[in-house]
Amino acid sequence: MSQESNVVVDHGQSSWSDLWTKEDYWAIWLGFFIIAAAFFLYLNFSPVGEFKEKIAKENALMETEAARAPFKTIAWYKAADAKKKLKASGSHVGKVVKYWTSKPASWKLSNPLDTFIMSKERADELNAKATPKYEEAKAKEVATFAAAEAAEAAAAGAVFQDATLNEDAKAKIGEWRAAHSKASKAKSKTAHKPYNHIPSLLGLCVGLALFFSIGIKFMGKDTFGFMKGFVFVFGVSVLAYIMGGMPFSKQYGIGAEAWGVALGMLIANTVGTPNFAKKGCEVEYYIKTGLVLLGAEVMFNKIVAIGVPGIFVAWVVTPIVLISTFIFGQKVLKIPSKTLNITISADMSVCGTSAAIATAAACRAKKEELTLSVGLSLVFTAIMMIAMPAFIKAVGIPEILGGAWMGGTIDATGAVAAAGAFLGEKALYVAATIKMIQNVLIGVTAFGVAVYWCTKVECEAGKTVGWMEIWHRFPKFVLGFLAASVLFSIVDGSLGHDMGYSLLDQGVIRGFTRLFRGWFFALSFAAIGLATNFRELAHYFKGGKPLILYVCGQSLNLVLTLTMAYIMFYLVFPEITAQI
Amino acid sequence: MNEISLRVRVRRLIIGAIAMLFFAIVFLPALTRSCDKLEYMAQVLEEDNIDPSRYYYTDIEAVGDANHEISNTLRYMPHGPGPVPGMAQGQ
Questions:
Q1: Which residue among A9, A142, A249, A406 has its CA within the 20 to 30 Å range from the CA of B41?
Q2: Domain membership of residue B30 as a residue range
Q3: How many CB atoms lie within 10 A of CB A541?
Q4: Domain identity same for B30 and B40
Q5: Are residues B40 and B29 in the same domain?
């Protein structure tokens, strides 16, 4: 994907100087610098002791309640809510980091200025507009809570031995939870605050230009030229964020990455990308650094998040679909480019854009191949996100089965959450959790593809490749990606689920590394667009083979995932399904 | 690209930009408003603050909430005395 050769290239030799002259290593150093900064800030400036104390108290309460009744009681839910509020990103450090990495805000069509600046008057106006809805939701919450309390007391009065009273209590508590959730969401719409993103965006632009230019300098490239070009790429990324932030664009899954490619291609194929900007189009550099940070979000502990059923749905079906689709592409469709084939296969079977980025970088796919894969995924994600919940409702598939099916098949995680929410809260929980488990497969996929490419694809037929040769060819940033994943998995495991959630998930990751990763991928897609020619892109779509590959692979995915989800959630582990 | 004059290229850029804005500001909203289900979906997404364009689980708050909820369920699964609601119907 580099400007000169169009592919990610590592030379067949290694030397110590690679550590400070090669892009792969710089991606690792920069990625780990951000990770180290995140740990330093959140471990030193978050109320860790207070979190521990509160978590222990709430867990003891949940244990007591779990032993008291055969269903989740009101006290059980309140304890869970209290734990959920403990987020390191809510600390002062979190707020400062959020400000300096903020993207342009969502563009409501009524006032485009909201993307950069919101005055106090405008914030008050929006809050006042949302208040009646919140008050209505709050009143409903109060009413359903009273009914839930009465029903639970009745069930408790019968020492939980009356099945009808238990059923009634569970149903009433469920209604209260739904009303509580609606009231919380409505409340968040009344909390607009004034902001001005212009200084923070300017600061971020300068900061990131300096940050990346360190590596550029050591790699022997034109540092000042890069910084000038970077400003242009950053500007396109900001525009992409603005377009991707529009509610109707988001609804169809067209985010900043897709708009970055589209805007970049528009410039490149009309007036042409200015020469000075080309020096800032360091696609691989941004992608690889972003991928090292993405590694931090690939935590292997998550695969047990929904127990054994989730592992079977996400970790057994997905690799079968990935490998079958790749073989189908090679043997039946005879797709000329193996890198295009594996990128589409991973994109379709694992988790869309993120898997496509990781796989494309691991097998050194061309930037057009990545663009094509992401484009295909975008179209099918939009269709499936709307069609699947409608189909599930129409044929009466149970919510949990439907959620598991959508979680295992729809590509993008956001679209999975959207489709799940469309179906119901239980469907959302299951769909989102299955997708999260599947997201973790990115680490295995990237490593497996990198090894397979080094040992099988990039060597002459019939010849074996020695360990040193594998090392020379191996894309080193994948090691940084895996190291970050292992580090975060170990830390998450040692902290325990609740501290891991409060400190790591809702602090180090969501409050730091993820924010930078988002920007790095947005920059890389804008840079891809600025370096892409329409005609070259059309060449890869010749014969419609990528489309056929996607459709056939996704069809297999749909059948296998539905079958496995039914077996796991309804035949083998019905007790888990009953309690979700 | 060299043989095409700057004026033509700038004109193409402007037309392309207008087409993109038309797509985002006119076409997509019209598509949503054309169908009740799509309009309902837009409303659910707005209320639940879900962004379907995000691609990784850490980008979506709802996924963190779901993980938290299910983890609590599995670790503190109710096992008190009495019949478990939902099991009888095989839900």
A1: A142
A2: 1-34
A3: 15
A4: no
A5: no
